[in-house]
Design a protein that fits this description.
Layout: H1 9-23, H2 33-36, E1 44-49, E2 54-58, E3 64-65, H3 71-82, H4 102-107, H5 118-125, H6 133-148, E4 153-154, H7 156-164, H8 168-179, H9 186-197, E5 199-201, H10 203-214, H11 222-234, H12 240-246, E6 251-253, E7 258-263, E8 267-272, H13 283-296
Helix pairs in contact: 1-13, 3-11, 5-8, 5-9, 6-9, 6-10, 8-9, 11-12
Length: 302
């Protein structure tokens, strides 16, 4: 017997305790002041199955900024609104360079490789409905909360911290996107991107969001398949391919230490642990996810 039906709370609690030691091998990002101040020992996991089973361990009610974990849901929202026209602005190809690589975008003549890296997400941010970053973020937030039952909020302190560092790399990316005709407004696209990355929730909220991509036990629609496929091939940046081979579930990370894995037709696993590896993925989150997937036989590839 496999899947979430075999998971026990005792087993999950033990893995979370072991993951706390793993977290100390990672580093806390320091380029956003607010992120540099977090408690590296915090850890949370929340699991929501499509059949209603629910597990959590650690600190599942601790709030954190989703950062790049929001990117699959921007894509899902736009696919629901615009359909395949969305891919006129962003590609579906993995990148072997860092998530904020300007060189990759330059090499690709200003066309962003995929929606899971900064260039792709900035391009998609420019497509969200609204007159400015705040209204566009609010439209996305309300849709996600209504659709999933999550209770996302905007972390104003994190947004101020993100704005305080300027991020010239993202600005250079936006300028190239504008020159190439893939966004209309540099300022609005960047402001929207900053806002949506500062949407905040708990591991429980993130697991609820994940169910939007796992759906029921029987049906996965075309938009969900598209998002899951791109999470599998692109969601962990240049580490995506190796993780897909080793673990084999659609996964998205964020620089805050957030991590979301989708098990189509079965459920979602949300983790939070802020210490990162060299690629920018949560060290303890990836370890914990791998234990769950292997022990419960959750890989897409058996």
């Amino acid at each position: 017997m496999t899947g979430f039906t075999t998971l026990t709370q005792t087993q999950l609690d033990r893995w979370v305790d072991e993951a706390k030691a793993i977290a100390h091998t990672g580093r806390i990002p320091d380029y956003i002041p607010q992120l540099a101040q977090v408690n590296r020992d915090r850890i949370a996991v929340s699991i929501q199955a499509t059949n209603g089973r629910f597990f959590s361990a650690g600190e599942p009610t601790h709030q954190f900024a989703l950062m790049s974990v929001i990117k699959p849901f921007v894509l899902l929202f736009l696919l629901e609104q615009l359909g395949q026209q969305t891919f006129r602005h962003v590609g579906k190809q993995p990148s072997d360079q860092a998530f904020h690589s300007l060189a990759q975008l330059t090499e690709d003549d200003g066309f962003p490789r995929n929606p899971m890296i900064n260039s792709g997400a900035i391009a998609l941010a420019d497509l969200l409905p609204g007159i400015n970053g705040k209204s566009r973020c609010e439209a996305l937030r309300q849709w996600l909360n209504h659709s999933s039952g999550a209770q996302l909020t905007l972390d104003e302190a994190m947004l101020a911290s993100v704005r305080s560092v300027g991020n010239e790399t993202n600005r250079a990316i936006a300028q190239l996107l504008r020159q190439s005709g893939y966004i209309h407004s540099i300022e609005t696209a960047l402001d929207t991107y900053n806002h949506i990355c500062c949407l905040s929730g708990t591991a429980v909220d993130l697991a609820h969001l994940g169910l939007l991509l796992a759906t029921s036990e029987k049906i996965i629609d075309a938009n969900q398949r598209t998002v899951n496929a791109l999470m599998l091939t692109c969601g962990l940046y240049e580490a995506s391919g190796e993780f897909a081979v080793r673990v084999g579930v659609p996964t998205k990370s964020g620089v805050s230490g957030a991590l979301l894995a989708v098990i189509p037709k079965q459920g979602a696993i949300a983790c939070y642990s802020p210490a990162l590896d060299d690629t920018g993925n949560s060290v303890a989150g990836l370890w914990l996810l791998e234990q769950l997937v292997r022990s419960l036989n959750l890989s897409l590839f058996g």
